[in-house]
Amino acid sequence: MTAILTLVKGDITAQAVDVIVNAANETLLGGEGVDGAIHRAAGPQLLEECRRLGGCLTGEAKITAGYRLPAKHVIHTVGPIWGGGDRGEEAELANCYRNSLALAAEHGLASIAFPAISTGVYGYPRQQATAISLRTVTDYLSVESSLAEVRFVCFSSAAYSLYAAEFQRRGLPVTPPG
């Protein structure tokens, strides 16, 4: 794994990376939480481009320009709605991360920033989602090495603490939030 994994507490819309990941809904036309924040920050051109994409299925990913964002691109992925854990949610969530990473690599992008997909209004238990995200990303990076940085961006202190604990459990360095 040649990519650096970083953890930051902050706003994903402010990340100066090649691509940020949007925890989108199936329409890709904006919504609550991260999705709404990204659409607001990127401006109306993002909505226009998303309309042409025809939506996105759970676990899949599609890419657009970043418009007014510091990031050059946005990868939109649709996380699973938590239904108790016996409806394939873990595989679908892992696919969000895996397909986003593959799409970034396919487009020659070197740095990517992820939010905590599905842990907001979709109700995925945060600790489980955190473990799935880090496991999926580290597994992917063990065989695909074109990415230079994978950043996990936590909006809340609670999310940051969960990610920091999972980073430490996996022996990954954590820089205190600043």
Structural description of this entry:
- Helix 3 crosses helix 4 and helix 4 crosses helix 5.
- The chain has helices at 33-42, 44-53, 89-106, 126-143, 157-169; strands at 4-9, 19-24, 61-65, 73-78, 111-114, 149-154.
- With 178 residues, the protein is of the alpha/beta class.
- Strands 1-6-5-2-4-3 form a 6-stranded mixed sheet, with helices on both faces.
- Helix content is 39%, strand content 19%.
**Tell me, what is the CATH class?**
Alpha Beta
Number of helical segments with 4 or more residues: 5
Number of domains: 1
The amount of helix comes to 25-40%
Instruction: Give the H and E element order.
Output: EEHHEEHEHEH
Largest beta-sheet characterization: 6 strands, mixed
* Through-space gap between termini: 26 Å
Strand content: 15-25%
- Which CATH-level-2 architecture? 3-Layer(aba) Sandwich
C-alpha geometry: globular
Radius of gyration: 15 Å
Mean pLDDT across all amino acids:
95
Spans of at least 5 consecutive residues whose pLDDT stays below 50 are: none
Strand order of the largest sheet: 1-6-5-2-4-3
User: CATH topology, which one?
Assistant: Leucine Aminopeptidase, subunit E, domain 1
CATH homologous superfamily assignment: Leucine Aminopeptidase, subunit E, domain 1
User: What is the strand tally?
Assistant: 6
Structural class: alpha/beta
In terms of quaternary structure, the protein is single chain
